[in-house]
Amino acid sequence: MKRAKKRVTDGGGVAPFIGFGHFASTTPPAPPNSSSSSSIGGNSSSQGINSAVPQLSPVYTGSDPSLSLLLQRLQKKDPKTKVNALVALKEEFTKAAKKPLLRDVLLNYLFVIKKLTLDNDPSVRKNAMLTLSASAGALPKLLLNLLLSNPSVLNIVHTLVSDPYKGVGRAADECMSRLVGVGLVIPFREVYESKCEVLGMRVSDFSLRIVSGSLVSNGNGGMKGGGMKKKSKRDGSSNISGDNKGNMENNNSDEMAAMEDRYDRSISSTLLSASTLFENLPPSELNDLDLSLILKQCNR
């Protein structure tokens, strides 16, 4: 099993861990008797969060066919298709020529960004951050309300700052700077709890795949994809030809390698970003976090 030992760069050199450190100094003293959660940039109540924040949407509900096509392409398997669609979406947010139509785009984009940022191709993850950053210029108020209502998306951005690929980490850091620049208050507690939730899901998903038999030992100390073989109704034997069987095993091996990469990167980036979060928290705010929560998730 291959493990990443250091941040892989796509431009030379090892990228530093940036995280929330360059925003921490902006945290003002909490008002007396304040019950607000720990945050960067100020008190979360100062943003005037709209109580009628729209829900993120798994599908694009707008009427523009060109925007609909771009969002559909984000669901494709081919990384180049997704990157091209992300670049085009970034241009739409940057130009804002269709600003009244971008609201529905953002509602769908913030839903699918979770999957995009798990893609093994670093270009997809990088451009997902660049597109999100561009949306802050087009729809800052709506984006702020959506992010505060969906802290798991904020956690994605913060976690990608610790991505093993330098270009991805830089794009995520620039995105976070852009968000703070338009007035985002980043709640520590909610982001931390999202990290713990991600850890729990990743560990559980990997364990369940092993227990269910979708991952089985390959006899060499590693794991490979498994699953049921198709049986003939007449004699119960496998009706898969030798060539097809070999192709299936290769596909399973590739799928396992891809899943392992996602698992390793997600776990390591989440833990590294949590470490950065702890390092930059003032002691008074650190005491407000349930530090045992992250340990419980790792020991599941």
Describe what you observe in this structure.
The chain has 300 residues and is mainly alpha-helical. The protein folds into two domains: 49-186, Leucine-rich Repeat Variant (Alpha Horseshoe), CATH 1.25.10.10; 194-298. The protein contains twelve helices and four strands, in the order αβαααααααβαββααα. The strands form two sheets. The protein has a two-stranded antiparallel sheet. The chain has a two-stranded antiparallel ribbon with strand order 3-4. The longest helix is centred in the last third of the chain and has 39 residues, at 242-280. Residues 1-6, 11-48 and 215-235 have low confidence and may be disordered.
How would you concisely characterize the structure shown here?
This protein is mainly alpha-helical and 300 residues long. The chain is built from 12 helices and 4 strands; from the N terminus they run H-E-H-H-H-H-H-H-H-E-H-E-E-H-H-H.
